[in-house]
Amino acid sequence: MNSAVVSQSRSNAHPDAAAVQRQIASRSFCTMATVSQTGIPHATGVIYAYVDGVFYVSTLRTSRKARNLAESGRASLCIPVRRVPAGPPSTVQVATRGEILDQDDPRIVSLVGRGALKSITGHGELEIVNGCFLRLTPSRRVLTYGLGLPLRTLIRDPLNASGRVELPLAS
User: How far apart are CA 75 and CA 67, in angstroms?
Assistant: First the structure.
C-alpha cells in the first residue's frame, strides 16, 4: 500500500482571459449539468452558440435540462478543449444563471435575424413544437484545467493544472 500523501494543489496554470474567451467562442459542444428541485443531478451533452458573452441552447421546454433550469435558474457547463489528438482534453468550466426563452422572444428573433444562432437553428429547431432556448449567462469567474500552461507541464504535473480567469460581464 502506498502511503504517499498528496499535498494541497498548487496551480501552475495561468490562463489568459481573452484566450479562454476565444476558446469558448470557437467551440460549440459542452456538457451541461443541472440539478432538480429534489437534488437529482442531470448532465447531458449540448450544442451551444456563444453570442455577446452569453450561451444559448435550443431544446424542448419539456426536457429535463429545461425543467431543472426553470426550477433552479442555474446550470454549469464543461467545455472540452482538445489541444492534441491523443490524451484527455483541457477544459473550461462555467457556472451560469439561466432563463428559458420562447422561440418568438424578441431577443431570439433579433439574434436569429442577425444569423447569430445559425449553429443551433440550422436544423429545423425553430419549427419544433414546444421548442425553446436556454439563455445561460456565465459568472465572471471561469475555471480551467490544462489551459495557460505548456502541454509538457500538463503531462508532467496534471494535479496542478487548474486555473481560473475573470471574464468581462456579458452584454
Answer: 11
Residue 152: half-sphere exposure toward Cβ, Cα within 13 Å: 0
Q: How far apart are CA 15 and CA 68, in angstroms?
A: 31
* Separation of CA 144 from chain center: 11
Find the range with the poorest average confidence among 1-5, 98-102, 121-125, 127-131.
1-5
Q: Of 61-65, 81-85, 145-149, which range is least confident?
A: 81-85
Closest residue by Cα to residue 79 from 35, 22, 123, 36: 22
Separation CA 125–CA 130 (nearest Å): 10
Answer whether 29's CB lies under 8 Å from 47's CB.
yes
Model pTM? 0.89
DSSP alpha helix (H) spans, 14-168: 17-26, 64-72, 106-114, 118-121, 151-156
Asked if the model's pLDDT at residue 86 lies above 80, the reply is no
Q: Are 12 and 149 within 8 A, CB to CB?
A: yes
Grid cell listed for 164? 481560473
